[in-house]
């Protein structure tokens, strides 16, 4: 079976930047865009040009700065938005307009106060206008996760006929379960006339913690683009995390997928985004969290020290992280203690480790983590005794 390329669409600079307190200026956005290009993403969603003069400028400057990556600007299905986006993208070698409208009955009623027929008309008009301005047009069916599947299929068929090159099926509210999201994508693959002319894209939010699982389920069902952000930043509980998608695809070769992502750059870009957006990464975050390669319980430490793969499915060097950490707590065992002493230059005998271990437990019960200074004191005490 030949491998299928999954296009990585990064929206850190658009959906990610919507996180309260994460606003970026143009210089910061350009710097991050260049790093995203080095990382190997295929598409950078650079902003929402009509939303502010600053965002327009960012999309324009990113379009000038990057060389081999598609630059995308978001719009509503509104003429002025689309014209402004095309203007902001005029220097891009590979420009894409990302236009769309609500597709669930909830959005049609409460946001647009209109009918399904009118939504299809507006969507077709927006895509046609955008296609007159740029050759690559992505259509998003907002809240597709909660949309009626028969209507969603009609809408997607209409926008492909109008010229959409990519069709985005967002689970905007993070509502779907993986099998439900996959069923939606499968239905479109099997029922939409002309679907082979467009790439299907997954755009999943993390309100139930399922964004990555849903995106991968969508790809298995036939989607070939995944929209994601570094560190999973995004509205509310965030978006699908790029580093998780990249490593799921890398670790599960049986899926038959590949991406252009250079995984050894993931850790550095995670830290850069975190620092630039002033948004810390949670320590237990998959792939890039501080504890992603830390072992603290005795059973795990003993296994890991015998053979790393007993408790690690990823070598930290594969994602550009520091080497794995053996953290000493009251749950740690003798082998971890001996290992840490060895790193400090003390090769204690088994009997000496036994003596040290009892003293270590007293310190460990009083502290959250036993550090090198504590170990040095324990070693000195033993040598004095
Ligand atoms: O979550 C969403 O539906 C979006 C669209 C604008 C693509 O971010
Ligand atoms: Zn979104």
Explain the overall architecture:
- The protein is of the alpha/beta class and 385 residues long.
- It has 14 helices and 12 strands.
- An 8-stranded parallel barrel has the order 2-3-4-5-6-7-8-9, surrounded by 6 helices. A two-stranded parallel ribbon has the order 1-10.
- The longest helix has 18 residues, at 116-133.
- The model has no long low-confidence stretch (mean pLDDT 97).
- Strand 2 (7-10), helix 1 and strand 3 form a beta-alpha-beta unit.
- Zinc ion binds next to loops.
- 3-methyl-2-oxobutanoic acid binds next to strand 6 and strand 7.
Topology record:
Layout: E1 4-5, E2 7-10, H1 26-39, E3 43-47, H2 53-65, E4 70-74, H3 79-88, E5 95-102, H4 105-110, H5 116-133, E6 136-142, H6 149-161, E7 166-171, H7 178-191, E8 199-204, H8 211-220, E9 225-228, H9 242-251, E10 257-258, H10 266-277, E11 294-295, H11 298-306, E12 325-326, H12 334-343, H13 350-366, H14 372-384
Parallel strand pairs: 1-10, 2-3, 2-9, 3-4, 4-5, 5-6, 6-7, 7-8, 8-9, 11-12
The chain binds 3-methyl-2-oxobutanoic acid and zinc ion (ZN).
3-methyl-2-oxobutanoic acid (KIV) binds at residues 15, 74, 140, 142, 168, 170, 172, 203, 205.
